[in-house]
Write a structure and sequence with these properties.
transport; six-stranded antiparallel sheet; AIR12_DOMON; about 45% strand; electron transport; signal
Length: about 190
């Protein structure tokens, strides 16, 4: 009996060490591109993480949005700021950075979201975006971009999502609790 308890205890300790060491929160993640950000946040839904550096005097926001657990080759992910929205209506008015993974190739583009029935069509956002790229590696998609925001902003509503791709068209995201709650106020400074 005592031997069995020791085995169970030993297995439990090893399992907890493995799970702790394999968990990749934002603070212990290093980008391959040697990019460094001043802040990061493990987002509460959809296995996502946000990294950013905000220069309030210029309004320049450098971001990396990392979405883990991508196990399909026909998937889209998006991260968006909503300069005019609220937490109750975060989607309409959102200005999205979208990455589509299709047949092993990743494509990034911008999409202004005007309503809940969006198909994430490509278009210009209400603020300039430069350096927009996306990568797929190790079952995760990372979107990088620089956004030029209003210099007076210190917080904004943001939202993030995932869904499937059919043909070349992003399909609606699921309506699960995680999807519907993937929004919050982001304090930039």
């Amino acid at each position: 009996m005592q031997t069995m308890l020791k085995l169970v205890l030993g297995f439990s300790v090893l399992t907890s060490l493995f799970l702790t060491s394999s968990a990749q929160n934002c603070s212990n993640y290093t980008f391959n591109s040697s990019r460094v950000f001043s802040k990061c946040r493990d987002l509460p839904h959809l296995s996502s993480h946000l990294y950013w550096t905000f220069n309030q005097s210029s309004g320049q926001l450098d971001i990396a949005y990392r979405h883990d657990g991508i196990n399909s080759t026909n998937k889209w992910v998006a991260w968006a700021l909503n300069p005019t929205g609220s937490l109750t209506a975060a989607m309409p008015g959102a200005q999205a950075l979208v990455a589509i993974l299709q047949n092993g190739t990743t494509r990034a583009y911008t999409s202004p979201i005007s309503s809940y029935s969006t198909q994430l069509q490509a278009g210009n956002l209400s603020f300039p975006v430069t350096g927009l790229t996306a990568t797929y590696q190790n079952s995760e998609i990372i979107i990088f971009a620089t956004l030029s925001l209003n210099r007076n902003v210190s917080s904004m509503i943001h939202t993030w999502q995932e869904g499937m791709v059919s043909g070349s068209t992003p399909q609606a995201h699921a309506m699960s609790s995680d999807n519907l709650n993937a929004k919050e106020t982001l304090n930039l400074v």
